[in-house]
TrEMBL record:
This is Phenylacetic acid degradation protein. GO terms for molecular function: fatty acyl-CoA hydrolase activity. Coiled coil: none annotated. It comes from Acinetobacter equi. Residues 56-130 form the Thioesterase domain.
Length: 144
Protein backbone atom coordinates (compact mmCIF):
# COMPACT_ATOMS: atom_id res chain seq x y z
CA UNK A 1 0.00 0.00 0.00
CA UNK A 2 1.31 3.47 -0.81
CA UNK A 3 1.37 6.30 1.71
CA UNK A 4 -1.52 8.03 -0.11
CA UNK A 5 -3.79 5.04 0.54
CA UNK A 6 -3.73 5.64 4.32
CA UNK A 7 -5.43 8.31 6.36
CA UNK A 8 -2.95 10.15 8.55
CA UNK A 9 -3.91 8.27 11.69
CA UNK A 10 -3.79 4.91 9.86
CA UNK A 11 -0.31 5.74 8.57
CA UNK A 12 1.00 6.75 12.00
CA UNK A 13 -0.50 3.66 13.64
CA UNK A 14 1.20 1.48 11.01
CA UNK A 15 4.52 3.14 11.92
CA UNK A 16 3.85 2.73 15.64
CA UNK A 17 3.05 -0.96 15.12
CA UNK A 18 6.24 -1.46 13.04
CA UNK A 19 4.22 -2.27 9.91
CA UNK A 20 5.89 0.69 8.16
CA UNK A 21 9.33 2.19 8.82
CA UNK A 22 9.88 5.31 10.88
CA UNK A 23 11.08 8.38 9.01
CA UNK A 24 14.83 8.28 8.25
CA UNK A 25 15.23 11.29 10.60
CA UNK A 26 14.40 8.94 13.50
CA UNK A 27 17.86 7.37 13.17
CA UNK A 28 19.56 10.79 13.42
CA UNK A 29 17.31 12.08 16.18
CA UNK A 30 16.36 8.98 18.22
CA UNK A 31 12.58 9.11 18.49
CA UNK A 32 10.00 6.37 18.53
CA UNK A 33 6.27 6.81 18.08
CA UNK A 34 4.55 5.17 21.06
CA UNK A 35 0.99 6.61 21.15
CA UNK A 36 -1.36 7.85 18.43
CA UNK A 37 -4.82 9.32 18.95
CA UNK A 38 -6.95 11.63 16.85
CA UNK A 39 -5.37 15.03 17.46
CA UNK A 40 -2.36 13.85 19.46
CA UNK A 41 0.84 11.82 19.35
CA UNK A 42 3.48 10.79 21.86
CA UNK A 43 7.09 9.98 20.98
CA UNK A 44 9.82 8.59 23.18
CA UNK A 45 12.99 10.59 22.60
CA UNK A 46 16.50 9.78 23.76
CA UNK A 47 19.27 12.36 23.21
CA UNK A 48 22.80 11.02 23.36
CA UNK A 49 26.35 12.38 23.16
CA UNK A 50 26.01 12.84 19.37
CA UNK A 51 23.52 15.64 20.12
CA UNK A 52 25.77 17.73 22.38
CA UNK A 53 26.61 21.35 21.60
CA UNK A 54 29.99 22.98 22.27
CA UNK A 55 28.96 23.74 25.84
CA UNK A 56 28.21 20.08 26.58
CA UNK A 57 24.42 20.40 26.59
CA UNK A 58 21.90 18.95 24.17
CA UNK A 59 21.83 21.14 21.05
CA UNK A 60 18.76 23.32 20.58
CA UNK A 61 18.35 21.84 17.10
CA UNK A 62 17.57 18.50 18.75
CA UNK A 63 14.65 20.09 20.63
CA UNK A 64 13.53 21.97 17.51
CA UNK A 65 13.49 18.78 15.45
CA UNK A 66 11.50 16.91 18.09
CA UNK A 67 9.00 19.77 18.37
CA UNK A 68 8.63 19.95 14.58
CA UNK A 69 8.04 16.18 14.47
CA UNK A 70 5.48 16.04 17.28
CA UNK A 71 3.52 19.12 16.19
CA UNK A 72 3.47 17.73 12.66
CA UNK A 73 2.47 14.33 14.02
CA UNK A 74 -0.54 15.82 15.78
CA UNK A 75 -1.61 17.43 12.50
CA UNK A 76 -0.98 14.20 10.61
CA UNK A 77 -3.55 12.35 12.74
CA UNK A 78 -6.43 14.30 11.18
CA UNK A 79 -5.37 14.17 7.52
CA UNK A 80 -7.52 12.35 4.97
CA UNK A 81 -6.09 9.93 2.43
CA UNK A 82 -3.76 11.66 -0.02
CA UNK A 83 -3.65 14.93 1.94
CA UNK A 84 -0.27 16.31 2.93
CA UNK A 85 0.86 19.24 5.05
CA UNK A 86 3.90 21.44 5.59
CA UNK A 87 5.09 23.44 8.58
CA UNK A 88 4.88 27.16 7.82
CA UNK A 89 5.74 28.45 11.30
CA UNK A 90 7.40 26.85 14.31
CA UNK A 91 7.80 28.80 17.58
CA UNK A 92 10.00 27.25 20.24
CA UNK A 93 10.70 28.03 23.89
CA UNK A 94 13.62 26.24 25.52
CA UNK A 95 12.83 26.00 29.23
CA UNK A 96 15.63 23.89 30.73
CA UNK A 97 18.55 21.85 29.37
CA UNK A 98 18.03 18.23 28.37
CA UNK A 99 20.55 15.59 29.41
CA UNK A 100 22.33 13.00 27.30
CA UNK A 101 21.25 9.43 28.07
CA UNK A 102 17.94 10.42 29.65
CA UNK A 103 14.55 9.44 28.19
CA UNK A 104 11.93 12.06 27.45
CA UNK A 105 8.50 12.16 25.90
CA UNK A 106 7.48 14.45 23.08
CA UNK A 107 3.76 15.15 23.20
CA UNK A 108 2.03 16.82 20.25
CA UNK A 109 -1.57 18.04 20.35
CA UNK A 110 -3.98 19.64 17.92
CA UNK A 111 -5.19 23.12 18.85
CA UNK A 112 -7.28 24.00 15.78
CA UNK A 113 -7.90 22.63 12.29
CA UNK A 114 -9.29 24.81 9.55
CA UNK A 115 -9.73 24.23 5.83
CA UNK A 116 -6.21 25.36 4.91
CA UNK A 117 -4.28 25.73 8.18
CA UNK A 118 -3.74 23.59 11.26
CA UNK A 119 -2.37 24.87 14.58
CA UNK A 120 -0.69 22.46 16.99
CA UNK A 121 1.42 22.53 20.13
CA UNK A 122 4.11 20.29 21.50
CA UNK A 123 6.17 19.80 24.61
CA UNK A 124 9.14 17.73 25.65
CA UNK A 125 8.78 16.37 29.19
CA UNK A 126 10.59 14.00 31.52
CA UNK A 127 9.09 11.12 33.53
CA UNK A 128 7.86 13.63 36.15
CA UNK A 129 6.12 15.72 33.45
CA UNK A 130 8.63 18.55 33.93
CA UNK A 131 8.70 20.59 30.69
CA UNK A 132 12.05 21.02 28.92
CA UNK A 133 10.86 22.66 25.70
CA UNK A 134 7.54 23.92 24.37
CA UNK A 135 6.44 24.95 20.91
CA UNK A 136 3.56 25.82 18.65
CA UNK A 137 3.28 25.24 14.93
CA UNK A 138 1.16 26.37 12.04
CA UNK A 139 0.89 23.88 9.20
CA UNK A 140 -0.51 24.38 5.72
CA UNK A 141 -2.78 21.65 4.34
CA UNK A 142 -1.83 20.54 0.81
CA UNK A 143 -4.55 18.84 -1.21
CA UNK A 144 -3.67 17.28 -4.57
Amino acid sequence: MSKDEYTGIEYLNAIKNNELPHAPMASTIPMRLIEVYEGSVVYEVSPNDHHLNLQGGIHGGFCATILDSITGGAAHTIMDKGVQFATTDLNIKMIRPMQSGKKYRGIGQLINAGRTLVVTEGKIVDENHKIYAYGTATLMIIRH
